[in-house]
Task: structure prediction
Amino acid sequence: MMTLACAKETERYSMAEDKVLTPRSEDFSAWYNGVVQRAELAGYSPVRGCMVIRPHGYAIWELMQQALDGMFKATGHQNAYFPLFLPQSFLQKEAEHVEGFAPEIALVTHGGGKELEEPLVIRPTSEAIIWPIMADWIQSYRDLPMLINQWANIVRWEMRTRPFLRTLEFLWQEGHTAHATWDDAQRETLLILGLYRQFMEEYMAMPPVTGIKTEWDKFAGADRTYACEAMMQDNWALQAGTSHNLGQNFARAFDVKYQTEDGEHDYVWSTSWGVSTRLVGGLVMTHSDDTGLVLPPKLAPIQVVIVPIWKSDDEKTRVLEAGARLEKTLNGDLRVRFDDRDTLNPGAKYYEWEGKGVPIRIEIGPKDLEKKQVMAVLRVSEDPKARKTPIPDGEVTARIPALLDEMQAALLESALRRREENSYRGVSDYDEFKSIISGGGGFIHTGYCGAEECETKVKDDTKATVRVIPDEDFASDEVPDKCICGGPAEYEVVWARAY
RNA sequence: CGGGACGUGGCGCAGUCCGGUAGCGCGCCUGAAUGGGGUUCAGGAGGUCGCGGGUUCGAAUCCCGCCGUCCCGACCA
Result:
């Protein structure tokens, strides 16, 4: 029974709730949704499972695109654009491919008011439309390697969806390359995996573990799938990028042949690889806190916000002038916003920009003008006392970029530390494994027998799955000779609960 | 597709049991003061109550049907 007093308490509580995010420690999922909303990254749409990427969220994606696109171009790739629709029969040419994607296909059956002779599949990935076309472009070994990338939207009909992490439609880039030898294709696959890792570390400050997927977890139609697995703040893994060596599977299915140096004909060796707007979700879950979004400076659409403070009209004039001048000074090298709105008081602005993840706020008030300084406030800082630092006017142009660099490095550092603190190596006892998973989880390195049924059982018991067979950089010095199922271990794997 | 909840101004909800002038908070607009961490006061705009049918003098409210969304499961970048 609820008394009147209780009802009032509840009411007051929920009003306060409006302004406070659900704490990360209390409900990670609710916290995540809150951060996305508060930062105005995305919103829901009238269509189930689809989302609207709002300007601030899209600006982050654009910064990611710029960095990645530069890396692809620097390694010889060219952008192109292939159609959204592919004939249903094309998808069916590669047996594993069609089987893998069948459950999540969206099909267009009508166009122009008439039923189509052959239904069109909305691309869930573009191999099936790209290879018939690239086949025409490739005649001789002189055309190889052919290195193509496209930025596009794709559709996969998912049952459960979450903003950025899983939606029916999402944005990504997909690279498609053709090579003369298996070795070349393999080199390309690993080159891209390395670029992804570098991007995630240097730009996102989200250090992934890289490795190869098990046979049954590969991309549908690939010989080998490599992945970047990043650890989120709830210790769950996020598959953040994949790179596939497709062997000659698609070349055979789509008859992509070239003439070799000695006049023979052979199928090309191909690769495909992609990262998506899911990275934005990963960024949120890697760094953000109970105040809202935290962005690494390299991917912050606004790196510095200037907030003026005044009382009298005279102060207002002088402070606005100083703010505008500072904006102009910093604007060349940095992405700066001067918040001169006079409809909000400074405190309200602080909350707004912190919620949106702006790395540095510069406050300018009458006291600062007097002392010929500005007050720089960091969005996050290892040392709480160092959060607010006065900077003399003359040092601003040097100090602010330096502070941004320091913050970028500190974010990577703390993400790395968190990953190491929550990684467990040499685990061979299943009870120990289970207690790690139930006690907060993490990345668990174990020996593995190599049987799919073994993973299925562990998944049923604990929800954890094999993420990857770790690359050299992440492999343990010593691996137990026993799998957690008790059987003999064939190789090392990394387990985690995953998104 | 199974289990659960819910559709009422932009957002979050109350009102539905027991039919009788459509309400509250946030946000928004106007004005004044305020301004170094979510400011206050005063005034104001905004809703065919998801859709269709039925019962009734009268339906947000009762009945029937449909549609949609969210949460939990099986599937997944």
Notes: Residues 1-17 of chain A have pLDDT under 50 and may be disordered. The two ends of chain A are 40 Å apart (CA to CA). Chain A has 15 helices and 23 strands.
